[in-house]
Design brief:
It is a multi-pass membrane protein. Belongs to the glycosyltransferase 87 family. With 415 residues, the chain is mostly helical. The chain has a domain of 186 residues. The protein is 67% helix and 0% strand. The chain contains 21 helices and no strands.
Length: 415
């Protein structure tokens, strides 16, 4: 018990040191705080100039909430957010473990589960933390709100989920998931809270100014814009960033040809959205039950939620590498699955499956870094959207590791 206490203290100290280090070099949170300073001065937060020359994409409410930080040294604001993100990572782990039957794991298995989960998520934790971004908060808010929904606290769940959606639209698919899982009251309350958050800034900005900013924001994030159909730069890793660069001639950071065919914009637009529709339909495959029904177990619920978390950064445009911290639930589930079933799995493994597992798995580890694979190889991986392919392969792995393969051994309590 004392050893665990000291270990947690040590980890907390290391986390705080890491957060402070990121605060000195990160830059994205400065964009958010800068928008807060602009909004209280009556400026258009969606037009230049921007801090760090980076576009502000989030809501007027989020900018208004951050406005008190505008007068502080940015390193203090970023350090605060980094420390909070570290705490939220701890909460993400605690919320996730509640879906698993922990007594069925030995002490050794628990250590391996934690270690493998940490290795597989560390790359994306680092991306989010070093950029001082919002995705860790969004992941926590989604998991926490879902817990409240399952525990019959729909108002609390709706308030938190709607707030997360107001900041960034990534958690939006979980509103439809709530409907599918018969949490109709929760879904409706989430929609009402979302509308409330849109117009809450009226109290400070006035009706006309708020409506103007909302119109500017909706125009900016409109997914039908051409710049959300073909993303040729090296940062984004969604389907919108992957598919077009192989189907039409684009200019990337590296002078290396990617496309094997040169289709028109209209055809590429159709193909991209057709593939995205396939991933939406795949949601029904993972849900594997009629609408308005509950899942058989907590484990099954976490498994199907894991698919949604992977699909979201693939479906939404302009998703940077840090957005793939949303894959954390899938990685936690798969780490548990392999640890729990290791004796049976290792007997079925061969050179082919080991190789495939290594190729996919390495993309979710810190081994993919400029200082390890070299800057040029790293840029090549971004250029050819290797992370996107790895995320798709992760979906395949998730399907192959379905929960019923373990539920015949361990029956998790129903939700």
């Amino acid at each position: 018990m004392h050893k665990n206490k000291y270990l947690l203290i040590l980890l907390a100290i290391l986390a705080i040191a890491f957060a402070i280090s990121c605060a000195k070099t990160g830059r994205d949170f400065e964009v958010f705080v800068d928008a807060g300073g602009k909004i209280i001065n009556g400026q258009n937060i969606y037009k230049p100039p921007f801090a760090q020359n980076l576009q502000y994409y989030y809501s007027p409410l989020f900018a208004l909430l951050l406005s008190p930080l505008a007068g502080l040294p940015i390193v203090l604001s970023q350090a605060f957010w980094g420390i909070l993100s570290c705490f939220l990572l701890y909460r993400i782990w605690i919320l996730s473990t509640e879906y698993f039957d922990l007594p069925q794991l030995s002490s050794k298995q628990r250590v391996w589960w934690i270690a493998v989960s940490l290795v597989l998520t560390a790359r994306f934790i680092r991306y989010d933390m070093t950029a001082v971004q919002m995705t860790i908060f969004l992941l926590w808010a989604t998991l926490q709100s879902l817990k409240w929904f399952w525990n019959d606290k729909p108002l609390a769940g709706a308030a938190l989920l709607a707030f997360a959606i107001n900041i960034k639209l990534l958690p939006l698919p979980f509103v439809f998931y709530l409907l599918y899982r018969k949490k109709i009251k929760g879904a409706m309350l989430t929609c009402l809270c979302y509308v409330l958050y849109l117009y809450l800034p009226v109290l400070y900005l006035g009706w006309d100014s708020n409506n103007f900013l909302l119109a500017e924001w909706f125009t900016l994030i409109n997914p039908l814009q051409k710049n959300w159909t073909i993303e040729a730069e090296s940062g984004p890793s969604s389907l919108v960033a992957m598919i077009p660069v192989y189907l039409t001639d684009t200019v990337g950071v590296l002078p290396v040809k990617r496309n094997f065919i040169n289709l028109s914009y209209n055809i590429v637009f159709i193909i991209v959205n057709a593939v995205r529709l396939i991933f939406v339909i795949l949601t029904l495959v993972f849900l594997r039950s009629k609408p308005f029904t509950s899942t058989h177990s907590k484990l099954s619920q976490y498994w199907e939620m894991s698919y949604l978390f992977i699909a979201i950064p693939l479906l939404f445009p302009h998703q940077q590498r840090y957005a793939f911290i949303y894959a954390a639930p899938a990685l936690i589930y798969l780490a548990w699955y392999f640890v729990f079933n290791w004796q049976a799995i290792k007997q079925k493994m061969n050179l082919f499956t080991w190789t495939g597992l290594f190729i996919v798995g390495i993309n979710f580890t810190p081994l993919i870094g400029r200082d390890i694979v070299t800057s040029y190889v790293y840029e090549l991986m971004l250029h050819f959207r290797v992370l996107t392919f790895a995320a798709i392969a992760l979906i395949v792995a998730l399907w192959l590791c379905r929960p019923e393969k373990t539920l015949n051994k361990v029956q998790s309590p129903t939700v």
